[in-house]
Amino acid sequence: MVLTAAVCAVVAGYRSYTAIAEWVADLPADTAVLLGIDANRRPSEAMIRRLLQAIDPDLLTAAIGSWLAARIPAPAPGSRPAIAVDGKTLRGSRTRDSAARHVLAAADQHAGIILASTDVDTKTNEITHFTALLDQIGDLRGTVVTADALHCQRDHVVYLAERGAHWILTVQGNQPSLHQQLADLPWRLVPVADRTTDRGHGRREIRTLKILSVSTGIDFPHAAQAIQIRRRRRRLDEPRRFPTETVYAITDLLAHQAKPMHLADWIRGHWSIENKPTGSATSATTKTAPRSAPAMAHTSWPHSATPPSAPCASPAPPTSPPPTATTPATPTDHWPYSASPNEVPGVILGAMEDWGSVARAAQERGDWDEAIAVVGSVAECFSPDPYLHNAHLWHMDLLARAGRLDELARRGESDRCARRRLDRLLYEQGRGSDLRHRAERGDKTAFYMLVHLLRDRGDERAARQALADIDQTDVYTTQLAHEPRTRVERNGSG
Fold first, then answer.
1. Shared domain check, 105 and 77
2. 3-class SS of residue 68
3. Which listed residue, 158, 244, 265, 462, has the most CB atoms within 10 A of its CB?
């Protein structure tokens, strides 16, 4: 109760032990009772001082962070929480004998609440405190962690991968080789994926975002996509001046895990917190630690201007489709579980000739890295727009042609199109044991392909035995296993 009263006093602007004691002494009786204080026996200045000096600031910070984290509303179905890691120097913490305190804090982007913080002394820097800071947060699985260029470190992303977290990191001159690799990507061929315009504070700002898949060719662990952000600002009283700033970032999020607008929201949400002035917070020690009082826990930062949006939700596990099922914009006489690479590019070329020409040319000369990067920049998993969905199907087909089975398998955990293209690739390569293994784990497409492969080999008995061993209730696979041989040959040749 004394600690609660002290926190309330500091939030109200009382910055010393004496001032806190005076605030407690002046409380109305009913308010004191609400704080758990006996109105006739209020704590003295000496008691408040001894109590606050005896408290471990780190333990108090962790306790309050856990309490606040438990009260953050759960994200909407399919969305992801986002945490911004940023360092701040505390205003008012400088004394005659010591430099101003610098803290590294992790704040929830949506609620603006600090979940964890740690002091950064003058003999070290923020980099060495990154893991210790996030260790204070119990569960990071599925959370998107954003940080500035200082924390674009290989050890950091390895740590986040071990915690099951995703990340978006800005890349600047402290990583010159990586920054040059990102700058050399074919950005002029990449269409704008997201565009926002803001007007305020006497200026207009236009932000555009481009994305490229970089599963290979970027010397950074776990990097899946590269991001280019261009910010053009114009002061309303200087219409002829329109300076442009280009910023690069990388993320481990795959294209089907976050849409461009989600990435833009998370990046802007981080900048919103990062650009808050050092005296804008309302807590006692977040930005305005009292000179005569010990540091207490960080409580909150101002709300982010742009809360993160929900990423693309993964669909429910697919059921086995009928043999005549087709993906959007593909002829019905093609294989059911993937778009034809000869059909999809034509659709895309009709809407974006230059981009499609570059991708097709790269595919024809076997430059899979470039083709995958260009196609992946516009592909969108499960998009209601057939154009974007077809680009995604082409992307999966390029991965299969490049022999990237591991990436297809990883994407297939949440992407039905990747899973089906992987199963089709295993069928094409005659890998019956791999198909059987996947079928036994519940992959109905692999089950269908396994039976189809056995029928192609003329092993009718093995096909029916696989049906009996794995799942006799699958209607379409059962139909395939028992249909006349001539029909199987006709389907296979199509």
1. yes
2. helix
3. 265
Q: Token pair 């990062």 is at which residue?
A: 274
Confidence of residue 355 (pLDDT cuts 50, 70, 90): low
User: In this predicted model, what pLDDT tens digit does every residue of 166-178 receive, in sequence order?
Assistant: 999 999 988 889 9
Residue 79 scores a pLDDT above 80:
no
What are residue 21's phi and psi, to 5 degrees? Answer: -60, -40
Q: Are 274 and 306 in contact (CB under 8 A)?
A: no
CB 348, CB 355: distance < 8 Å: yes
Q: How many structural domains are present in the chain?
A: 4
Q: Is the dihedral of CA 31, 35, 40, 41 positive or negative?
A: negative
Is residue 139 exposed (0-12), middle (13-18) or buried (19+ Cβ within 10 Å)? Answer: exposed
* Same-domain status, 134 and 172: yes
Residue-by-residue DSSP string for 275-337: TS-TT---STTTTB--TTS------B-PPPSSPPPP-PPPPPPPPPPPTT---TTS-TTS-TT
Tokens of 247: 């910023």
CB 299 within 8 A of CB 64: yes
Q: Is residue 296 part of a domain?
A: no
Task: Express each pLDDT in 98-144 by its tens digit.
Answer: 777 788 988 888 877 888 888 887 667 889 999 999 998 888 998 99
Q: Do 298 and 273 meet the contact criterion of CB atoms below 8 Å apart?
A: no
With a CB cutoff of 8 Å and minimum separation 6, the contacts of 252 are 157, 160, 161, 166, 167, 222, 223, 224
Are 169 and 64 in a shared domain? yes
DSSP string, 142-158: TPEEEE-GGG--HHHHH
Task: Give yes or no for residue 244 having a pLDDT over 70.
Answer: yes
